[in-house]
């Protein structure tokens, strides 16, 4: 079980992903954008992993969010989800990318791989 912060602006996608995370016995918190995610962390949330959409409203994308979160919590694992192919930006930031649509099993495998070095 891991504490996962899900950052996803689409409420339907977020709801489905929270359900899947809970099926796999993870504790899921949800933020609708990067600013809300940072506010949760600043308020004391300490996730084991962040699962974030790449493209979000509000001016800060998933790569920028990962950098801001890691400045606050060094070494925090971050997995980026996107409906597009991996970008040079995610590659340069050394972020694992999970391309939508993905199965629950692919989601769990990405989480396990991202957490492996920290456990």
Q: Could you please describe the fold and organization of this structure?
A:
The chain is an alpha/beta fold and 119 residues long. It contains 5 helices and 5 strands. It has a 5-stranded parallel β-sheet, with helices on both faces. Helix 3 (62-72) links the parallel strand 3 (49-53) and strand 4 (78-82). Helix 2 packs parallel to helix 3 (62-72). The longest helix is centred in the first third of the chain and has 13 residues, at 11-23. The termini are close together. The relative contact order is 0.18. The mean pLDDT is 91.
Topology of helices and strands:
Elements: E1 3-7, H1 11-23, E2 27-31, H2 34-42, E3 49-53, H3 62-72, E4 78-82, H4 88-92, E5 97-99, H5 104-115
Parallel strand pairs: 1-2, 1-3, 3-4, 4-5
Helix pairs in contact: 2-3
Which descriptors apply to this entry?
globular; 119 residues
In short:
Helices cover about 40% and strands about 20% of the residues. It has about 120 residues and is of the alpha/beta class.
């Amino acid at each position: 079980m891991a504490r996962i912060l899900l950052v996803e602006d689409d409420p339907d996608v977020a709801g489905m992903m929270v359900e899947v995370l809970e099926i796999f016995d993870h504790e899921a918190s949800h933020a609708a954008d990067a600013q809300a995610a940072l506010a949760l962390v600043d308020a004391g949330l300490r996730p084991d992993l962040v699962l974030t959409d790449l493209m979000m409203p509000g001016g800060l994308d998933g790569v920028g969010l990962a950098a801001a979160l890691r400045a606050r919590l060094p070494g925090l694992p971050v997995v980026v989800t996107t409906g597009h192919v991996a970008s040079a930006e995610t590659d340069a930031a050394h972020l694992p990318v999970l391309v939508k649509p993905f199965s629950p099993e692919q989601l769990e495998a990405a989480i396990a791989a991202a957490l492996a070095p920290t456990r």
